[in-house]
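lol ok so funny story. i was supposed to be doing the assay writeup but got distracted and ended up predicting the structure for this chain instead. priorities right. anyway since i did it might as well share w the group, maybe its usefull for someone
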Amino acid sequence: MQAAYICETCGAQHAPSARPPDRCAICEDERQYVGWRGQRWTTLDELRAGHRADIRPEEPGLTGIGTEPSFAIGQRALLVETAGGNVLWDCVALLDGEIERAVRERGGLAAIAISHPHYYTAMVEYARAFDAPVYLHVADREWVMRPDDRLVFWDGDTRVLEPGVTLLRLGGHFAGGTVLHWADGQERRGALLSGDIVQVVQDRRWVSFMRSYPNLIPLPAATVQRMVAALEPYPFERLYGAWYERLVASDAKAAVERSAQRYARALK
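and the output, tada:
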């Protein structure tokens, strides 16, 4: 019997197979790591047996979807509600009845979009459950571990999903590293959903930028400057990172700009 095995370290679900894969290419890349106990696998059924949904309101029209206890990298997804259709930003490995009910009660999904390969996780399960396309930047296509017809590979630097919901390709952490600009967020002052392409740090007045977070590999200052320049046309008061409570609550655009300046000074 085949199963779509899930890597316990990064959460990536792989194509169905009769036995666990020999390796997870995402974890063997220098931006991630193979767990200290070696490559380990689980399945969605096993996850459902030992984990539950952690659903929290973030602000009007924005809901967090996480997993308790924490699994793999531990990020939470964000459900953005719009008049034209809802967008799920980033993904988690768990999909259970509670998550399905919460999403359907809020109007289902028109689209799914993911910042980078570390959060691809169970994107195909979500796409099939909600009959929604998954938007991934084509520059990261090689990291798809479970191909599916619902995956849409977009090119260029911007992609509008719904009015006021725009994907921005910044690069950095991955070549196709993407953030989502939500124009109506934070009382129409704008919100940026950044995953960890732009990383909210412990002092939440600041952010940072890295090629690898667990292995502490920095990015060149010129790359960071290009990332910030790509954000210049888009106003945002608040920035949501990849985990619950990781957010720059106000004046977020200025925080990104001053953080990039500090980053460049530290590399001199």
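The chain has one domain: 6-43+53-267. Residues 86 and 109 are 5 Å apart (CA to CA).
back to the writeup now i swear
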